[in-house]
Amino acid sequence: MKPKTARKLLRSLLPDNVEPDERLVAKIATDLVKPLGAPGSVRWQAARTVISAGRGITDDQVDAETQRRRAKHAMAVEEARRAAEKSADAAVAYVAQYRAAHGVGPTWYELAREMGWSHQTKGTSIRHLQKLGHLTFTTANRSLDLAQSPNSEVATAAI
Length: 159
Fold this sequence. Notes:
Arc Repressor Mutant, subunit A; mainly alpha; elongated; disordered C terminus
């Protein structure tokens, strides 16, 4: 890795008022960056947390923080899926009503707000409803639509 890149990565780890020492930059470039993974990865973020807490940096500490972060993420995903399953019928009804009134689907934000989902879980919830066969969408804006399934047709007929 180039020293310029290592210096930039080290600056992201250090407090704003601390300038990295060139010997430390060289050490980071050769010894630390590869084991920590790519910048932005879960392991890299875990290492930043360990360093910020002033606990030094060992593989065991980074591994423990990485596992904690992954477990927290898994719990959040499971919570989003449960919320989506709980409000699936209401979400289908809202999308159907919105499409009937406006001719296009609601945005993900509008559906999440209507269902009471948090900003952080809306994507997981909507993708889970797609996986369950309730909704479809594309990359186009306002493309949320009802999936062609018996459940969706019943919900549409009820409206």
